[in-house]
Amino acid sequence: MSAKDPFRPADDDARALARKLIAEARYGALAVLREGAPFVTRIALAPGPDGLPVTLISDLAPHTAALRALPDCSLLVGEPGPKGDPLTHPRLTLQARAVFATRPADRIALRDHYLDHQPKAQLYADFADFHFVRLVPHSGHLNGGFGQAFRLTAEDLGA
Fold this sequence. Notes:
By secondary structure, the chain is an alpha+beta fold. The protein contains three helices and nine strands. Strands 1, 2, 3, 4, 5, 6, 7, 8 and 9 form a nine-stranded mixed beta sheet that branches. It comes from Rhodovulum kholense.
């Protein structure tokens, strides 16, 4: 006996909600593999010029070394609302690949865009040990609330 698949195919409403969650996310939970074990940390985020998540991370952070060793990661966005069960509020889990901005032109473009959304990062954005990283999704799982679970492709997410 096989279990019924709880995920629906993406529709326009699911795509729009997923993109909204990314656009509004200023923090997220990033999961990486560190020394062979799962490691989760909170990171600051901004939507990049292309609508995909961007973060600014330091070489001092353990997740930076983990992403350099294995760029595959997962990102959870979506905050609980002020009332009700936190599990009834929409959230999006992305399976992604971390892409470090290494070209000066890419770094400048991401820097300006990121600082528009995270102005306090101005204090450290230009430190040599900080790097802008695009989190390019290859799939996603959207939980839009009770009975509203969707599988999303990279194309659904605008990647």
